[in-house]
């Protein structure tokens, strides 16, 4: 017996499909680690030129909980300028709006829209996890989506929300809201993705994987892309899996997926290793060579030398693939110049 397809209307604005980098926050080499907007401008432009289909700021990799509201707005204004200077002013910029209260998340959504974001990414509240009933969870998302000037993407990541995990029934219910357009499944549950894609078309509710080590299975299951921290280090290769799959080059996509999955293993260990990897493999390419720019914000610490060495060994399997892919050209070039 076939699964019943949803009859909800198509959403008026959908998050474009593809691979999105959840961009790390970069800091100045000072005691207070102010955000380094110049470095983030350069990093942004390199990610776009590398073929990333969109960028996410102020998510988990962006250390959102460690940034002030004013810092968040400054970063979003900076990266919107960066993509505009490249000649792609409408490039998708997703902003994390995750707060512990409904009011906070609504305000963050309004701030993000004012600063130039195009979509909003929202975790469930988790400060007092036992008090977050299913009813409270669904109402939270509906209330925020009602007031958000940006289309909302549900961010499901039990690892950072005290174990709160939206199941496929919860997500299917929320998919019916006209301003909730997609979900990012960092829970890594491909079965959940299949259940959702069996009910909804991508125009009704889009499904994204939460990392690139299962991008190929996500696409085969009916999903439309992923959000991957590894893209901070290897943006061309991660985007290339999607591009190959779309072009019908399935065997090539699967082959590249195998290498990417092994490189991404280092990102699973800690954000500090993702940031170190970005500095090691990408820093010189974007003209940001001070490794302290890629340190986590205090109180979190940079990795030990042993873990740095291990990260280089694990991620290096992808260097050859990355270097073989050319950068893309845009109308105005980097920093607005030909």
Structure description:
The chain has 338 residues and is of the alpha/beta class. The protein has one domain: Alpha-Beta Barrel (TIM Barrel), CATH 3.20.20. The protein contains 12 helices and 8 strands. It has an 8-stranded parallel β-barrel with strand order 1-2-3-4-5-6-7-8, surrounded by 6 helices. Helix 7 links the parallel strand 7 and strand 8. Helix 2 packs parallel to helix 3, helix 8 packs antiparallel against helix 9 and helix 9 runs antiparallel to helix 11. InterPro entries: Aldolase_TIM, DapA-like.
Please give the structural blueprint.
Blueprint: E1 18-22, H1 37-49, E2 54-57, H2 69-85, E3 93-96, H3 102-115, E4 119-122, H4 134-147, E5 152-156, H5 168-174, E6 180-185, H6 190-199, E7 206-209, H7 215-220, E8 225-227, H8 235-246, H9 250-269, H10 271-282, H11 305-315, H12 319-323
- State the secondary-structure class: alpha/beta
Please state roughly what percent of the residues sit in beta strands, choosing from under 5%, 5-15%, 15-25%, 25-35%, 35-45% or over 45%: 5-15%
Task: Name the overall outline.
Answer: globular
* Domain count: 1
CATH superfamily: Aldolase class I
Radius of gyration: 19 Å
Summarize, please.
The protein has 12 helices and 8 strands. It has helices spanning 37-49, 69-85, 102-115, 134-147, 168-174, 190-199, 215-220, 235-246, 250-269, 271-282, 305-315, 319-323; strands at residues 18-22, 54-57, 93-96, 119-122, 152-156, 180-185, 206-209, 225-227. An 8-stranded parallel β-barrel has the order 1-2-3-4-5-6-7-8, surrounded by 6 helices.
């Amino acid at each position: 017996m076939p699964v019943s397809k949803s009859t909800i209307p198509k959403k008026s604005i959908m998050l474009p499909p593809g691979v999105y980098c959840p961009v790390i926050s970069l800091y100045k080499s000072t005691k207070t680690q102010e955000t380094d907007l110049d470095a983030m401008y350069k990093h942004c432009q390199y990610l776009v030129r590398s073929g990333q289909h969109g960028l996410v700021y102020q998510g988990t990799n962006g250390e959102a909980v460690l940034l002030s509201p004013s810092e968040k707005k400054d970063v979003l204004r900076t990266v919107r300028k960066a993509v505009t200077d490249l000649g792609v002013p409408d490039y998708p910029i997703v902003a994390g709006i995750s707060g512990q209260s409904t009011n906070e998340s609504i305000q963050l959504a309004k701030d993000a829209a004012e600063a130039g974001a195009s979509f909003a990414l929202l975790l469930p509240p988790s400060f007092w996890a036992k008090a977050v009933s299913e009813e409270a969870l669904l109402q939270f998302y509906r209330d925020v989506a009602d007031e958000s000037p940006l289309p909302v993407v549900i961010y499901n990541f039990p690892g950072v929300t005290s174990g709160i995990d939206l199941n496929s029934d919860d997500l299917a219910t929320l998919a019916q809201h006209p301003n909730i357009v997609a979900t990012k499944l960092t829970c890594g549950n491909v079965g959940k993705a299949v259940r959702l894609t069996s009910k909804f078309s991508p125009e009704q509710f889009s499904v994204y994987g939460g990392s690139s080590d299962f991008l190929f299975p996500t696409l085969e299951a009916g999903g439309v892309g992923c959000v991957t921290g590894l893209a901070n280090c290897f943006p061309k290769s991660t985007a290339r899996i999607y591009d190959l799959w779309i072009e019908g080059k399935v065997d090539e996509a699967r082959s590249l997926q195998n290498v990417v999955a092994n490189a991404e293993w280092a990102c699973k260990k800690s954000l500090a290793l993702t940031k170190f990897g970005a500095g090691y493999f990408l820093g010189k390419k974007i003209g940001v060579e001070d490794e302290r720019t890629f340190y986590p914000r205090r109180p979190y610490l940079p990795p030990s030398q042993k873990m740095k060495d291990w990260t280089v060994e694990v991620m290096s399997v992808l260097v050859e693939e990355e270097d073989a892919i050319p950068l893309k050209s845009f109308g105005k070039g980097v920093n607005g110049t030909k």
